[in-house]
Specification:
With 422 residues, the protein is α/β, with parallel strands linked by helices. Helices cover 27% and strands 29% of the residues. The chain is globular and about 75 Å long.
């Protein structure tokens, strides 16, 4: 078993509670190892720092699993079972567990691993070589823990198809772990039914992190006109419809996502515009394929106005270097969205980009309001649901995007929008 020795003065992030050690922080590695092996970690002066797994092919050379031990052999079945049980008990105490994120990587002290539970199906994403070697043991432990609460896992699907795996020396992969099953899974969120495509949907198939944010918009939507931009498979739109919205329009550039949104609408018995025959009904849901950046100016030119406009875009940046360019995109959609909100109506806007700092996003939204001659009254600020926990440490805290491993990423606001000179 090898020991990783840090350079003098390095390892500041991991000493402050972080989980990552970068390759340029390592002085030497004593002993032999294979990539992905568990290793002990010591400071330059021999001070014990814990156990992690090593991959010198990656810029993130070590991901820490524990600070309370020095012997890698102690990462055994009992150790992994405790990690899994702690994660599940936390979810039981904080969220509706019918569908939720059960393991959230570093925030659950299992770096590089994500497991989502969709009713009786698990979807796993493994992004680091070390955790990939432990993956099957962790999933076995999770099945045992769930069984204790009467939950039988029907199947497991792996969605480790992110290109970032190549940085770990692994190829992207997707496929069944164990016996095949129907990969279209029905879930219920906030009383709304959704069909989740765990094999071909985005990420693991459904964005569970917005669950309670979607519920938060309901009080605004009864009897009004709602525009849901970047609707994906219709989650915000259908929550608005369930709240009694008079008219809901969902827009996304993906034909596959929009078709799934229509299926979800029919699954819940909502009236789709294309299904209407004869007189217009009292309430209707419309989904259209369009580029939001192109559509919003067209709607403004046509004089359209909405009581509620929802902006839930994909991440506009996946690197810190591209945040300035991303800010232009956020400024544009917020400007256009505000122009479509009736005086006194509401704007729901968010960013799921880890690398978009909250302070910069706030400044961007404020600039958009100034350009649109609108005044914003903040109703509520929220973040990701509790099954995507934000792990605090001295060097890794909400509001600080200087730490790549920061588990805080989702910023969500509800604003009332009024004319600036009203």
């Amino acid at each position: 078993m090898a020991t990783v020795i840090l350079k003098k003065g390095e390892g500041r992030t991991v000493k402050a509670g972080g989980a990552w050690i970068y390759d340029n922080e390592i002085d030497r590695i004593d002993g032999s190892f294979e990539q992905g092996d568990l290793v002990s970690v010591q400071d330059f002066d021999g001070w014990p720092m814990g156990v992690g797994y090593l991959n010198t092919r990656s810029k993130i050379a070590v991901r820490m699993l524990s600070r309370g031990m020095q012997d890698p052999a102690a990462v055994d079945d009992a150790f992994l079972m405790k990690r899994v049980r702690d994660a599940w008990e936390y979810r039981k105490a904080t969220v509706d567990t019918s569908s939720c994120r059960v393991i959230f990587g570093e925030a659950d002290l299992l770096p590089g691993l994500v497991v989502d539970k969709f009713e009786d199906v698990l979807v796993v994403e493994s992004l680091a070589l070390g955790i990939d070697r432990l993956k099957l043991k962790i999933l076995g432990a999770l099945k045992e823990v769930l069984a204790e609460d009467g939950i039988t896992v029907r199947g497991i699907y792996e969605r480790s198809d992110a290109p970032v795996r190549r940085k770990e020396g692994m190829e992207p992969f997707k496929g069944f772990i164990g016996e095949p099953f129907d990969t279209e899974v029905e879930i219920t969120e906030n009383g709304v039914r959704f069909l989740v495509d765990v094999a071909d949907g985005q990420k693991t198939g459904f964005f569970l992190d917005q669950k309670y944010n979607r519920r938060a918009i309901r009080s605004l939507c009864k009897g009004v006109r709602v525009l849901d931009c970047f609707t994906h498979t219709g989650a915000f739109a259908l929550n608005a419809a369930a709240a009694g919205a008079r008219e809901v329009t969902g827009v996304d550039a993906s034909e596959l996502a929009i078709e799934q949104a229509r299926k979800n609408a029919r699954l819940n018995g909502f009236c789709l515009m294309e299904d209407v025959k004869g007189d217009d009904p009292d309430a209707v849901v419309t989904f259209k394929v369009a580029d939001v950046f192109d559509l919003l100016p067209e709607l403004e030119a046509a004089g359209e106005k909405y009581d509620v406009v929802i902006l839930d875009p994909p991440a506009f940046t996946k690197s810190r270097e591209a945040t300035k360019k991303a800010a232009k995109g956020y400024r544009e959609i917020n400007y256009r969205g505000m122009k479509l909100v009736k005086d006194g109506g509401f704007l729901v806007t968010c960013s799921c980009s880890h690398f978009m700092p909250q302070a910069l996003l706030e400044k961007t939204i404020q600039e958009a309001a100034r350009s649109a001659h609108k005044r914003l009254r903040q109703v509520e600020f929220r973040t990701q649901s509790a099954d995507h926990p934000i792990l605090w440490s001295t060097g890794n805290m909400p509001g600080r995007q200087d730490q790549d491993e920061n588990s805080y990423y989702l910023k969500f606001w509800i604003f009332q929008v009024t004319d600036q000179f009203g």
